Amino acid sequence: MGKRKEISNWGRYPRIEKKESLFDNIPVLDGFLSDADTLIARGMGRCYGDSSLGENIINTASFNRFLAFDDKEGVIECESGVTLDEILQVVVPKGWFIPVTPGTKFVTVGGAIASDIHGKNHHIDGSFSRHVLSLQIKCSDGTTYHCTPTDHADLFSATCGGMGLTGIILSAKIRLKKIATAYIRQKQLKAPSLDKLLELFNIYQDYTYSVAWVDCLSKGKSFGRGILMLGEHAEEQEVKPGVDTLKVHKTPKFNIPFNFPSLVLNKLTIRLFNTLYYLKNLREEQDSVVHYDGFFYPLDNINNWNRMYGKRGFFQYQFVLPLDKLDLLKEVMLLIAKNNKASFLSVLKVFGEQDGVLSFPMKGYTLALDIPYDPHLDQFLDQLDLMISEGGGRFYLAKDARMKKETFWQTYQQADKFLEIVNKYNPGSSFSSLQSQRLGITS
Amino acid sequence: MKKSILILGATSDIGKALAKRYAAEGWGIFLAGRDRDQLDRLASDIKIRYNVPADAHYFDALAYDSHKDFWKNLQDLPSVTVSVFGYLGEQETAEEDWEMCQRILDTNYTAAVSILNLVSNSYLERGQGVIIGISSVAGDRGRSSNYLYGSSKAAFTAYLSGLRARMFAKNVHVMTVKPGFVMTKMTAGMDLPPLLTAKPGAVANVIFKAMKKKKNVIYVEGKWRWIMLIIKLIPETIFKRLKF
């Protein structure tokens, strides 16, 4: 296996000193399985917390080959280490797109399935796993299972969103989305208050892509003001003539080579950013046609943007609350505003139905916040955790690094069923992360 | 004629990187090695990513008798052949264990000669072609810590040098590549100096560019030329006392 080195994920907390092993063929992976007591798979390290950290980390970066691409039917099959970035490069020129994409293209297919990622189209298209036709997964005794929603359906459903605890995902077959162009017809709507914003969500619920940026620091009348961003894949005639309609994104150029001093991002600059961001849209409604890269991945053009938050890092906090808990959502947001805990890029979205057994998205409102670290933060978040879990909500495991065990078992109603499936396919459980240990899912 | 490259030892990390680099330039790729499953996966990957032809071919470097058929069975003659396969072994074990020692010598030297003889003769007949041999800086001077591997690479370097001279007048070019430390499966777990260690992708890039310029002998990282020059200049009376 490889050498020990310091490893942390996107939120840069926690940091551990561990070995990370690569494999590019099955016999090598089999060797890791028989040598180690516990393993956890890791891809691009874009989850925020400790989901892919553990005693023995198996990195899928070298297991990254495309196995088949049917450009007539729009079905692609690849190994788990292939990134969404690489898939886009292959499929966009042929008129296809990833069916569900998160806010970064730098995640692997394995990670996308294990976190059952969601995107701006969750209310219409569900999460990533809904478009996975089949997957191959290697369990603890070395057996490889071919699962589909009907074949080993229990393992399939537990693997989608199962945080890597059901085995090592080897490959997946994914159904793509047909596009006429690489461009998005975008509509931005300004909402002076939260109520107005939620009303707009409702009015425009038929849009394929919808997400709102919320100013979580504004108080009083403008509390919860924001900008609703809507999108549809653009047709050929909507794109400027002479432009390559199926143009692939460029690779990022900018890099943040060092940690910003903590002073750069403070309450004042964050408040200023939020106000400016709201004011930058002069008109109530703005329509434009933009490339998918800018629409879906605005931050991907800056490598290591997480360094902007300084050395101490930040917490990404994302929860979902049922639709009938609107008052509670407001209460939580008010509390955040009152305590000045939010930063820029607080994102609000309405989810559709849940997919996998342990999938995070469920019908309701989801709010994602970046909160720079401060010594009292944990206490504050514990308070929020309690409010949200008692209100029937839950937290995104891919962004969690601190949730309490009780909170997990209280909020993920199918956790028992999940554990049953994990144990059925992995008697004596071999897959375990710092997160699964903290949450008492594995020992 | 369509440009194509035959990669002998295609599942090695440098082999894979070369396949991707050449495919990105639109070249057709012949992947040769022992691991069928790996070769097939690599071939489908290259076809899908780069829209170029890519085929997998079984090739066992140590099965010399099979080389003739292997070469004959390639549908088209590749315009470039690169020999990447090699075996590092373990110096200390190989000092005692003849089987490992022989495998080092055979893989790095005898096998390469066996297949490249066939390749060069057929390129000679055709009057064009490029042969690239991946040798090593370890062949520049035998050091106590890896002279078995080093001497096999030294022999390979000498072979390529002679071959180059023989082919020169017939429009066939031979390039010798001497990588220093490269981050690969071969060196996994070794404590390598980061400033002197190249990534396979960078090695492939250097090789592609050097081939276009028809270079004869290249060190992948220029620094190695000077390091090896110094190592070569150390007088033997001093050198024999050095343990490295």
Molecular structure report:
In chain A, strand 5 (66-70) and strand 6 (75-79) form a beta hairpin. Chain A is 26% helix and 25% strand. By secondary structure, chain A is an alpha+beta fold. Chain A has helices at 26-35, 84-91, 109-114, 122-125, 153-159, 194-203, 267-279, 292-296, 326-338, 377-390, 405-411, 415-425, 434-438; strands at residues 4-7, 16-22, 40-42, 56-59, 66-70, 75-79, 96-97, 132-138, 144-147, 168-175, 177-178, 183-191, 209-214, 226-233, 254-255, 285-291, 302-303, 314-321, 346-351, 364-372, 394-395. Chain A is globular. In chain B, strands 3-2-1-4-5-6-9 form a 7-stranded parallel β-sheet, with helices on both faces. In chain B, helix 1 packs parallel to helix 2 and helix 1 packs across helix 7. The mean pLDDT of chain B is 94. Chain B has a single domain (4-239), classed as NAD(P)-binding Rossmann-like Domain (Rossmann fold), CATH 3.40.50.720. Chain B is built from 9 helices and 9 strands. Chain B starts with a strand and ends in a 5-residue tail after the last helix. Classes of the chains: A alpha+beta (443), B alpha/beta (244).
Which helices and strands, and how do they pair?
The complex is a heterodimer of chains A (443) and B (244).
Chain A: E1 4-7, E2 16-22, H1 26-35, E3 40-42, E4 56-59, E5 66-70, E6 75-79, H2 84-91, E7 96-97, H3 109-114, H4 122-125, E8 132-138, E9 144-147, H5 153-159, E10 168-175, E11 177-178, E12 183-191, H6 194-203, E13 209-214, E14 226-233, E15 254-255, H7 267-279, E16 285-291, H8 292-296, E17 302-303, E18 314-321, H9 326-338, E19 346-351, E20 364-372, H10 377-390, E21 394-395, H11 405-411, H12 415-425, H13 434-438
Parallel strand pairs in A: 2-4, 3-4, 15-17
Antiparallel strand pairs in A: 1-2, 5-6, 6-10, 7-11, 8-9, 8-10, 12-14, 12-16, 13-14, 13-19, 18-20, 18-21, 19-20
Chain B: E1 4-8, H1 13-24, E2 28-33, H2 36-50, E3 54-58, H3 67-73, E4 80-83, H4 91-96, H5 98-126, E5 129-134, H6 147-168, E6 172-178, E7 181-182, E8 197-198, H7 200-212, E9 217-219, H8 222-233, H9 236-239
Parallel strand pairs in B: 1-2, 1-4, 2-3, 4-5, 5-6, 6-9, 7-8
